[in-house]
Structure formats: structure tokens, C-alpha cells
Amino acid sequence: MRAKEAVASMDAGAIALSGVDKWFETRDEPVHALAPTDLSIATGEFVVILGPSGCGKTTLLRIVGGLIQPTKGEVRVLGHDLWAGGARQSEAAAGMGIVFQDANLFPWLTIEGNITLPLELRSVPRAERQRRVRALIKLVGIEGFDRRWPRELSGGMRQRAAIARALSYDPAVLLMDEPFGALDAMTRDQMNIELQRIWIETRKTIVLVTHSISEAVFLADRVVLLSPRPGRIDTIVEVDFERPRSLDVQASPEFQSIVTTLRHRLIAIS
Predict the structure, then answer these.
(1) Structural domain contains residue 29
(2) 39 with 75: CB under 8 angstroms?
(3) What SS3 string covers 75-103?
(4) Collapsed DSSP state (helix, strand, coil) of residue 37
(5) How many domains does one find in the chain?
(6) Is 176 inside any structural domain?
(7) In angstroms, rounded to a whole number, what is the distance separating the alpha carbons of residues 19 and 68?
């Protein structure tokens, strides 16, 4: 299935930003991090946010995730307002999972314990917890490591566990902030392949932030390029390669053309 066909077959409306703007107060003067932004992401779409350092990529992702409140504008997730009366609305926030650059696993819990914890907090029955955790461990490819401590795993394996934990309560939306930024190049390529496989199997809506142009083009249905601060949407590029994509696609003239276009645009706006 081609990317455009896949997205076209999905109902729009997983995420909708309208006039979202963000200022941060500092001791010196207010910082305008994100200019008014409108963006719609379809259910099941894989969108990658790209841009220069400090452009507001992480701010945008954290606003979508309900971790910080926008100064102005509206955020709707799965058809629900994320913010109302200055308070985050649990009905919208409950539909999202978040993976950060650091796996942030609890060192005193085993890998299985880390994945199980969100289910325990939601009072999911024990038998159902065990069934879900076994399925997730298989999905992310860490079978045989479930009884290990986080310190005993490589960075890539810890990120696999973090993805499993974020998926444990079956969120409709998965937000990822530079999840593979600290990994070596070969492990990062492998994790990109694995993330694509997980997306194909689950069809979650994924929004991923990265600094890597090639990673963005390899993974995305659409790449959203932000301008320097205050961040605003400068360019949106559709990526129309068949899935599953192998790493060999990166050597194709079409792939290199998209990468070159985005790189030149980044240089022009930086």
C-alpha cells in the first residue's frame, strides 16, 4: 500500500491544532517558542516533525501530549478538547502514549515490571495485564529480556521496552520525541525498521520529532518542517513510498531528491 492511499483511506481527526501559540516567561523577557500553528493529523497517519534546533519541535509535541498548555489556541485529540478552563482533560490525554529520547525506565523494576506498571495504575486485571505484556514484549522484539533490569540492556533494547510501555494501555496516538537520537547509527537504522513494523502492525497515529532528515523521510507519510523560533510550519512534504520500506529505499533518486529538498529548505530558513 502506498502512503497516500493509506492516509486517504483513514478518517481525518486524530489530532487538530488551531491557532496554537506558546510563550515562555523567563527572568529576562518572554520567549516566543511557537507561532500560531494550524495542523491536522489523520487517524493512523505517521507524521514527522523536523526543524533546526530550538525551533519549537519538542514544544509542539509536548503541547499535543498535554504536558504543557498553549498560551493561545485549541488542541483536539481524538475528537476531544485537550484543554478546558486551564485544565487538561483526561478523556483526551488518556488516548496518548509518549516516548522520550531517554527511555526513562524505572531502575528498580524489571523490564516486565516497567511495561506492566501503567496497567497496574489503571487497575487492569492481572490476567489481562499478563496477556498484554506478553504480546507487547513479542511486538517490540525483546522476548527473553522481560526479567532483566534496565541497566542490563543496551540503549536500543531499553527504547524497545519504553515503546512497549507506552503502548501497554493501547493508546490511539503515540508521540515520540527524538526516541533514537542517542543511539549509534546502525542501531538507529534497525530501530527505524522496527518502528515501521510496529506502526504497520498496530496502525497507531504516530507523531515523531527528529533532527535527522533521512530518518524523517524514511518513516513519515508527511514531514512537517518548522521554521526557526518562533516555530511555524514552513513546509509540508508528502512521502509516497510503498511500505514496508527497506533501508535500500534511501539510495533511490526519489528518496535523495526529497532529502535534498528538505536540506536546502532548512539551510535557507536557518
Answers:
(1) yes
(2) no
(3) EEECCEECEECCEECHHHHCCEEEECCCC
(4) strand
(5) 1
(6) yes
(7) 15
Q: Is the dihedral of CA 110, 113, 115, 118 positive or negative?
A: negative
Q: What is the CATH number of the domain that holds 188?
A: 3.40.50.300
Range of the domain at 50: 3-95+171-269
Structural domain includes residue 240: yes
Residue with cell 491544532: 17
3-state SS track over 40-80: EECCCCEEEEECCCCCCHHHHHHHHCCCCCCCEEEEEECCE
pTM above 0.90, yes or no: yes
Strand pairing category for 205-210 and 46-50:
parallel
The verdict on residue 198 lying in a domain is: yes
How many helical (H) and strand (E) elements, i.e. helices and strands, does the chain have?
Answer: 9, 12
Q: 14-47, pLDDT tens digit by residue?
A: 999 999 999 999 888 999 999 999 999 999 999 9
